[in-house]
Amino acid sequence: MLDDEAGRLIRPYTVCGGRTRPTSDFDLLTLVRATGRGTHGYLDPDHSQVLLLCREATPVAEIAAHVRLPATVTKVLLSDLVECGAVTVSAPPDPDVDPDRHLLEAVLHGLRTRL
Q1: What would the 3-class secondary structure string for the chain be?
Q2: Which of 30, 76, 79, 115 has the lowest CB atom count within 10 Å?
Q3: Residues 6+ apart with CB under 8 A from 8
Q4: What is the pTM of this model?
Q5: Which position has the higher pLDDT, 78 or 8?
């Protein structure tokens, strides 16, 4: 729950039920994507918000920024979603592999059109 002036009204510790460690292995660049499978139970608003952000492959750091939660809390929520099969995770692209030139040109074009 957020209040624009006060910020988050519920402590992050409460959001993840007091858990401090995720059960799945993530780093900040891990890509997370929704599977489209049901969650087989009730999702609280924070889980639902995280799941909506995962419609496309999204890095953990970006998800944490959007939901305004510490990365560790976000990882705990993501672990819950992995366990129920609602999301999958994949390693970030290998930085040693040369990126596709056409992809980089498309990103540059997209950035220029937004400015």
Answers
A1: CEECCCEECCCHHHHCCCCCCCCCCCCCCCEEEECCCCCCCCCCHHHHHHHHHCCCCEEHHHHHHHHCCCHHHHHHHHHHHHHCCCEEEECCCCCCCCCCHHHHHHHHHHHHHHC
A2: 115
A3: 1, 2, 68, 69
A4: 0.68
A5: 78
Provide, rounded to the nearest whole percent, the portion of the chain with pLDDT above 70. Answer: 80
Residues forming a β-bridge with 34: 87
Give 90's contacts (C-beta < 8 A, 6+ positions apart).
Answer: 30, 31, 33, 57
Q: Which amino acid is at 69?
A: L
Residues 34, 55: contact at Cβ < 8 Å?
A: yes
Give pLDDT tens digits for 15-44.
566 666 777 888 889 999 999 887 777 678
